Amino acid sequence: MRQANRELTRLLRTGPFESALDSAIAAANMSLEDLRLRLDAKGVTVSRTTLSYWRRGRSRPERGESLEAVARIEEILDLPASSLRALLGARRPRGRWIDHPPGTLDRWKLWPSSEPLLKALNAPPDGQLAFLDTSDLLVVNEDAGIRRQRVRLVAEARAERVDRCMVYHEMDDPQNLVPELAGVTFGRRGRVRCDLENRQFVAEFLFDRPLETGEHAIIEYELKLPVSQPMDNFYRHFTRPGGLYTLQLRFLGRQPAWVRRSDRSHTANLHLSEAGTTSFAVPEVRPGTVGVRWAW
């Protein structure tokens, strides 16, 4: 059972949606008819056939009422809020929208529990900034209890008078330890808020001056990540299309047995050098999840 729970936890991070849903239903030892009846009791009507199609990947929930059903499924199966919805990505283009750029994920709808936190910070609307380059450098030393994440963001203003950048991190520590913002370069540290119940960390970085449409800014910051259990994965969520994404990893001391890139559309083993380093790049990111996992 413990192994099954670990697999479910992994699938909730990496997807695909249908595999995570199938694993969650199996872990709950629930039939599709049981799930349909539980949804009906919550005032949500979904046919058993539709649930089966979602579970097998033959169709995906996309409309508002379908996404509401997925939210209720998360409650019934005792899953973290929005964990299944985060795997759905953008709605597939149809009809007159077919020539539009790939869609985006609405952060407020994707993680409903974040709404009070973002309102408290008076967070600007999504889409004011486009990220042309996102880079993560992760240093892990399990022997010394050191985990550091260095982030570099190259942003372009898509609106007038954009004066700040908001960054979001999900916490996955069983002891509710939170990251520590160790430093900020090419910008000023604003407010930092944590929501332990919903495992969210939000930081605000202020630009030296407001950006006009088309102007660029570079922000670099570093986090000290909590250490309470062995770390075996790292993932980044993208809510909208972006430019280049690069991930560099450096393992000091004890080396993992293997490192594997894992996201919704691509899984591959990564070469780990004798110096304990590896990396990969995504030239044009799409909404969804990109990351790696490893085994000690």
Approximate strand percentage? 35-45%
Q: Write the H/E string, N to C.
A: HHHHHHHEEEEEEEEEEEEE
Largest sheet: 6 strands, mixed
- Structural class call reads alpha+beta
Question: What's the CATH C level of the largest domain?
Answer: Mainly Beta
Name the helicity range.
Answer: 10-25%
Average residue-wise pLDDT: 83
Using only CA atoms, what is the Rg?
A: 20 Å
- Report the CATH architecture of the largest domain: Sandwich
- The span between the termini is 20 Å
> In which order are the strands of the major sheet placed?
4-7-2-1-9-12
Number of helices: 7
Number of domains: 2
Give the strand tally: 13
Protein name: XRE family transcriptional regulator
InterPro entries: Cro/C1-type_HTH
